[in-house]
Amino acid sequence: MNRMIRAAAAQIAPVFDETGLGTVGKICRTIADAAQQGVQIIVFPETIVPYYPYFSFIRPAFRMGAEHLALYDRAAVVPGPVTEMVGAAARAAGMVVVLGVNERDGGTLYNTQLVFDATGELILKRRKITPTYHERMVWGQGDGAGLRVVDSAAGRIGALACWEHYNPLARYALMTQHEEIHCAQFPGSLVGQVFADQMEVTIRHHALESGCFVINATGWLSDGQIADIAGDPALEGPLRGGCFTAIVSPEGKLLAEPRCEGEGLVIADLDFGLIAKRKRMMDSVGHYARPELLSLLHDRRPARTVHYPDDPPEGVEPDSLQDRT
């Protein structure tokens, strides 16, 4: 209860290169820089590797084929070079790392969140359960197997991406597993100030309801990047604003000045005693719950297109991360 750790939320811009590994290199450098400041857990923005598909927000589907295929070429395979590079950086820094990637699995892309322990081990791979609006033309759907809280060197970690936070049952699934640190990721540089305002309300409410810390990271685009993506000054407006990188306490308080412009880290010390202080008064999955009236059915089986005779029986947890995800 009296444990303290130092956390960081990173607001950074992607690197648009031919391989997608330029962004990964930038992430690894950011991890090393954060380690110099005593950071023990860091959260990066939604699908920052290689970049969020901003093109899908400003182009009709029939005009985004080339950009979609380019994202396929640069997307991460898990496990693969991206997980090796980031895992090595996490291990060298002794830091828990939460990273958003575009994951390619066969012929489908997924919005995927990766959690690396301080040893560099990949301890969670989860996919966004429902891509939002324009994103449905880019990514496939995840499943309930990824709605999982994992133990790490920094504490019990849960994660959701962007508007998954507007699915109260998804959030509740993580609450029931007693997350201590919730890692939220949004794209940033999208929609305008209203997006940042909504984001603040969302993450502060989850901190209060779950009785946990929330580390939220949003991406950032420079003026030059916005111009390149838009290709037309009339399309640049939707790619500005919407950044709110912040860290919130279980009491719903901002623990550091949020970052709404530019690149940089938001850093704060997390006092785990605040979790018990909040839950003593309101534990939404304990003494404040009414399970005989309201309960949640959570199907944690991975979605599969084929089932084999040697698959584990229903209700039996698989042994490996590969089986889990």
From TrEMBL:
Coiled coil: none annotated. Pfam families: CN_hydrolase. Residues 304-325 are annotated as: Disordered. One of its GO terms (molecular function) is nitrilase activity. It comes from the Bacteria. InterPro entries: C-N_Hydrolase, C-N_Hydrolase_sf, Nitrilase, Nitrilase/CN_hydratase_CS, Nitrilases_CHs. Residues 5-272 form the CN hydrolase domain. Belongs to the carbon-nitrogen hydrolase superfamily. Nitrilase family. This is Nit6803 family nitriliase.
